[in-house]
């Protein structure tokens, strides 16, 4: 049932020079910050259009006040807990299952054009398997999900985060724990100017309206 499904969104406090640093090398820190905020708003709009619960996990912990002033009080906000990205994801999922949800998928904030159909496919897959994984074109993944009963925290162990082997080694970890995850279509997260250029956003019909409007306003359409 949809009421037992939760989307976990990882975000960072919107501070210039601290978000989308690789993108900033191509568009500048000011534009990278503005685009990051657009990305987050686009993902929030997408999830808002669905029946799923949304749990927003933020970093750093001291950024809560800034995030509240930006996003308002309509969202369930929780601090990311852990040292590595793997620890943070593992803890967020465990926290979500402890809150009573039966299925959870975790995504990042650099997916302005991700459609709800992808998330829906992930939740549907979790009706028949315990894990789901969405590979990104850079060798990482843009989505990971589990059922509460099939959650294996050790999936996140010994992963070299930020490398092009993250998806491969995560898949190996699934297999080592006898879980065969459902693999979603490859999707492109937006880390660089080249990724932004490849988006191909349509201002008339496409998703990511916050991102599209900003690019048009600043003359950054490609």
Automatic annotation (TrEMBL):
UniProt xrefs under InterPro entries: Nucleotide-diphossugar_trans (IPR029044), Trfase_1_rSAM/seldom-assoc (IPR018641)
Keyword Transferase: yes
Record bears the keyword Transferase: yes
Entry-linked Pfam families: DUF2064
Keyword terms: Transferase
Gene Ontology molecular function, alphabetical: transferase activity
Protein name in the entry: Glycosyltransferase
Organism field: Desulfobacter hydrogenophilus
């Amino acid at each position: 049932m949809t009421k037992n499904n939760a989307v976990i969104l990882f975000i960072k406090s919107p501070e210039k020079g601290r978000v989308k640093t690789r993108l900033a090398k191509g568009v500048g820190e000011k534009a990278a910050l503005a685009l990051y905020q657009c990305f987050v708003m686009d993902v929030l709009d997408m999830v808002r259009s669905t029946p799923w619960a949304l749990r927003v996990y933020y970093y750093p912990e001291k950024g809560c006040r800034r995030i509240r002033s930006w996003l308002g009080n309509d969202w369930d906000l929780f601090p990311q807990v852990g040292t590595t990205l793997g620890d943070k994801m593992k803890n967020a999922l465990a926290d979500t299952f402890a809150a009573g949800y039966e299925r959870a998928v975790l995504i990042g904030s650099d997916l302005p054009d991700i459609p709800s159909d992808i998330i829906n496919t992930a939740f549907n897959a979790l009706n028949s398997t315990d894990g789901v994984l969405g590979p990104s074109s850079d060798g990482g993944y843009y989505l990971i999900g589990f059922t509460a009963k099939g959650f294996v925290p050790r999936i996140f162990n010994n992963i070299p985060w930020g490398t092009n082997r993250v998806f491969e080694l995560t898949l190996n970890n699934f297999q080592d724990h006898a879980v065969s995850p459902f693999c979603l279509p490859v999707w492109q997260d937006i880390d660089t100017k080249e990724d932004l250029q490849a988006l191909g956003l349509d201002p008339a019909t496409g998703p990511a309206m916050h991102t599209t409007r900003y690019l048009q306003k600043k003359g950054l359409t490609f």
